[in-house]
Design goal:
The structure is a homotetramer. By secondary structure, chain A is an alpha+beta fold. Chain A contains 8 helices and 14 strands. The first copy, chain A, has a 4-stranded mixed sheet with strand order 1-4-2-3, covered by helices on one side. A 4-stranded mixed sheet of chain A has the order 5-8-6-7, with helices on one face.
Amino acid sequence: MHAGVHRLSAAGPSDTAVLDEAIAHGLIRPETIVAVLGKTEGNGGVNDFTRGFATASFRTCLVRHLGIPAAVVEARVPLVMSGGTEGGLSPHWLVFTVDRTPGTTPRDDRKSLALGIAFTRLFTPEDIGRRIQAVETARAVKAAMADAAIADASDVHFVQVKCPLLTASRTAEATARGGRVVTPDTYESMGFSRGASALGVAMALGEVADEAVQDERICHDFDLFSSRASTSAGIELMRNEILVLGNSAAWYSHFAIGHAVMGDALDAAAVDRALTMADTALGDAVGTTQTDRLVALFCKAEASRTGTIRGHRHIMLDDSDIKATRHARALVGGVLAGRIGDTRLFVSGGAEHQGPEGGGPLAVIISLRS
Amino acid sequence: MHAGVHRLSAAGPSDTAVLDEAIAHGLIRPETIVAVLGKTEGNGGVNDFTRGFATASFRTCLVRHLGIPAAVVEARVPLVMSGGTEGGLSPHWLVFTVDRTPGTTPRDDRKSLALGIAFTRLFTPEDIGRRIQAVETARAVKAAMADAAIADASDVHFVQVKCPLLTASRTAEATARGGRVVTPDTYESMGFSRGASALGVAMALGEVADEAVQDERICHDFDLFSSRASTSAGIELMRNEILVLGNSAAWYSHFAIGHAVMGDALDAAAVDRALTMADTALGDAVGTTQTDRLVALFCKAEASRTGTIRGHRHIMLDDSDIKATRHARALVGGVLAGRIGDTRLFVSGGAEHQGPEGGGPLAVIISLRS
Amino acid sequence: MHAGVHRLSAAGPSDTAVLDEAIAHGLIRPETIVAVLGKTEGNGGVNDFTRGFATASFRTCLVRHLGIPAAVVEARVPLVMSGGTEGGLSPHWLVFTVDRTPGTTPRDDRKSLALGIAFTRLFTPEDIGRRIQAVETARAVKAAMADAAIADASDVHFVQVKCPLLTASRTAEATARGGRVVTPDTYESMGFSRGASALGVAMALGEVADEAVQDERICHDFDLFSSRASTSAGIELMRNEILVLGNSAAWYSHFAIGHAVMGDALDAAAVDRALTMADTALGDAVGTTQTDRLVALFCKAEASRTGTIRGHRHIMLDDSDIKATRHARALVGGVLAGRIGDTRLFVSGGAEHQGPEGGGPLAVIISLRS
Amino acid sequence: MHAGVHRLSAAGPSDTAVLDEAIAHGLIRPETIVAVLGKTEGNGGVNDFTRGFATASFRTCLVRHLGIPAAVVEARVPLVMSGGTEGGLSPHWLVFTVDRTPGTTPRDDRKSLALGIAFTRLFTPEDIGRRIQAVETARAVKAAMADAAIADASDVHFVQVKCPLLTASRTAEATARGGRVVTPDTYESMGFSRGASALGVAMALGEVADEAVQDERICHDFDLFSSRASTSAGIELMRNEILVLGNSAAWYSHFAIGHAVMGDALDAAAVDRALTMADTALGDAVGTTQTDRLVALFCKAEASRTGTIRGHRHIMLDDSDIKATRHARALVGGVLAGRIGDTRLFVSGGAEHQGPEGGGPLAVIISLRS
């Protein structure tokens, strides 16, 4: 199996023409596409419809290229859109491919990029932000690891999860049948959904004990976290969609992945640690400054709940005009773009139970030296 | 003469208690205060009242400490507030002092931090954003250089200007008497005022020829720019207030200043170039990585008008929810904070005619090795 | 010919399920659909993708129901989406149908709702906001009047126009070939496009003389206006799409339309005047308070450029957090919803050359007394 | 005793010049000023510094006119600023005066405008949003009724309360000593503080039983509410400040007050009911349409938690760009301004436990027919 990743710049949330072009030029064979991640230019909040617009646009695009019904595309290919390109972040798509053509066997026993996909069942509004969402997510992460032929959790470097949120009408639906949702606040529900999903990843990777994940600790006890989960909430789905990324000797590809944890929002050096880890996986010696071989960067950003960064006050949590998640993406996007000189970064907001307080997981995919 | 600079964290736009405390502890003698610069946490736009609130609060505070009328404080001490602490930027005050006590003569002929202050006359709404504003500003910059005992323009490293903007009522006042303002759009007027003021600095420093500064080129021909101007518009004044910062052998202080131009929003290395320049002024050999001796950093941020950063699209100019100036401050704040590990940065938005397209001037003040 | 209008509540910008349902229940025959207008819940600004998402969703929906290619739907059925449901405004669709089945001849010589559609050619970025856009729009309005079998301009009561805007990339495209756009500011370009389009309507209806519409008067001389134009700018098209609504004896329907001009943002009584006019068209005597027969209401809202409403200051033009168009829609939506008790109002922002300064055109469609 | 109310337009949050002018013209005697209410043009959220700026400005202004220290002004004169003038709302001040000059005795036994003032103790961060805040508020309301010489709660028509909110630093202070705040979310804390304060008013007026007000019902059981409370949270204080407005035969003034409850956001007719009640108090027969005698209007606005208004969806609760309180003020401001033709309305957002779900209390002060 050969895993590939293609980074395409997006002119807008419905810009699938860049994929059409990549296919037309033979750079991507449509039948190998297994997942599309996107940074879209909405507010990243409840009413960010750029995510749904991008999802619908890619579904239509894939229907056209694959000649299969929309429902089949929906069931098979996760389209994980993360809203918010504040500051200098550049909207882009990451198209993941898997080529299972016989003959592309591993050259040697070196590990390289591996990926796997899985989905949970549909959730009810009442499930969101609770232990049950974490448990179902953990199960799906393990299924995705199996799909990726990764047996050892230490070979998993990033788990991207797309999860649902509560809207006024979903809450009303639950209330009507006597159900209780975790919060009546739609924006707040995004945090609970991201948090429960991240704890599900942590359970699957052995970072947190199963019994530690209880309703009352979700979005309260932030000592529990995953160093490899990245979860993103959106209005356009009611299940969790999981993409596991790691390195495996069962795969042969030109790519490898590494991760690190940003200790706080200013920890630009995490990029170097992650690059070194990816290098090591490849048995290569790239050196941490060679950011030109970086083909994708993922990380989570959040406003420190202490109200400070390295002892100095930030205003993100007190701002009633711009949401803290928007400030945080802009900040971390700037920190990392200043380090690597590129704004096509998959920086996602809302890092509940994803990395330590005020910091977050970061992962890089690098290409082999040619 | 001895120039000093004190960086104080602000708990809010009216937090003058930190100055009270510094005075109480003998760190600052109130009669030596010559200017206060502040980053306040408003939107940086037309209706950013945090600037005016901070100005009023410091005026009241200085009246209390100096025992002089508010009008005298207003006439003598520029209070230059720049709104907008997006991303991780930390609200703070920079209190500049000058000690003219006999005895504090220069140790040697080494240059050190020098500063001077001047004001233009009050402008009419019709003046704003036009050549006349630039001409008056240039005259005031020269007065401020004389005040700083700096004869050579190459010893000027930063010129901070606070300038007015147009409001609906100021425009109505002009229109009522048959006058024409440069734009009916209040937010847009901030850019014109900043641009004309920056060109005034460029004229004074010999960066742009006098005759090149014509109404039709202001905010149109961005090849004209100053590499040392930083201009900031606010609703709370109708004149320009100028603070010139440079190095001079006529002064003795523990500080020196250097500058550099950020070539674009990601140019974090400009910090190193500016540090080196400041080192050189001191005859020191600090090395560019010793950011711990940095006591103040100033820079301008703007969204590149090309719509791209290093070839990749940004969304700052197409966003109708968050102004481009807010995005740009968050981005550049992240780039620089990631480089130096500190969020107390005087990053000001709107860099019309201040540095090249998409970039901006940057200056650092460092303290002597103790 | 029989014209119909159906108002459907929208659960979101991609909610075409309500149309599916109306078709399933036999309330609407898909082949009779000639236009869909929608109020969607975006910011109404440059980066309001809810308009494009709604347009794409309806196109897909109509392709499914009609069994014709997307390009044919696009060429034939205007999908006019207006972003912004601030305050209490309720997102909704207005589906217009025309039934040309023989047999549905007029009962008598009474006038009833008539409608016609036309499109301009594709515009270049340089055309937008200039006289050429007005001229092309005027031509298309006349074509739409012919399509509606309305000969007399006084029988036209509302002309809805969807028009393009400039983005950073469209401006760059024009600049690259040496062209000049009307403004480099994307948000501002929306106003120019709306203004030029409105003047095109005014030319077609004889409200403004042809030669009066010159580049330099567009968005400057607001004494020129149409009392029946409503223009809305969006990123998702490059031509103008026109829907003419009026009354005609050539049509037989259960509906009639009337209009009035809101003299300012508080002029709730305009609803009564428009209802009376519609009544008169029907030869009916409904009485102005019977708002229960109102099936659609359209109007334009804008922030008075004087900075006041009936002598008291408003803050819409000085607000750098929320655009004036958003404030204005919320205000006028409240004024009208308070009058008629219903929030499903097609209130559109940005009334350049549409009605007098601070006011705007308003139209109502009422159903016959059953 | 003679109570007066003066409505002054504000050019900005620090515009006390209008009061200076009213004093200079003899319209207001400064020593009679007992309270100032203001609508200021901030976002009405956590970081709305227009409230604090207005408060500081009026304090300085009163110090100047009264020749007493700032601390005395602060202890004696409530300065109740409510942020948010969305839509068409016009920033203005309401200056309340009490003249206790002997001789101004009641003409007859007719009731007229009466007012009283009281303060709670300073709260701790932990008190906010809990029963203890309600209990202390109830006690202060009764003190203010005594101050107003109102014995019967049915003579109280409006109780304006200014209450504190939690910031990141206040929460940190509480947490540091082992305390628990009601919510870590600063914006959300505003709702809890308003809600607990409103229930305190309801307790004092006998609208809700003392034992019904428990921590777990605050901001959860909205069947508990006051029909006369209006509470507004701000960062600039840590106690509750109370202004009771009613009618009393012990007072002689040219004014009377009445109230009504808006059943929902579109209930414009509530103005008529409140006017009628005020008329009745005066023994007058003004007729409900004579809005020209209206000198002040107060009301609370909120987004219905059902997500609908009269059955149709609103988007206020799902909007991550503009807070629901901002939408709600714009909407209700439009509804009422469209009814009375004036935008100088004290519409305050966040109606937790103030009026029924989706509606809110409304009060009018009218002047006697001259």
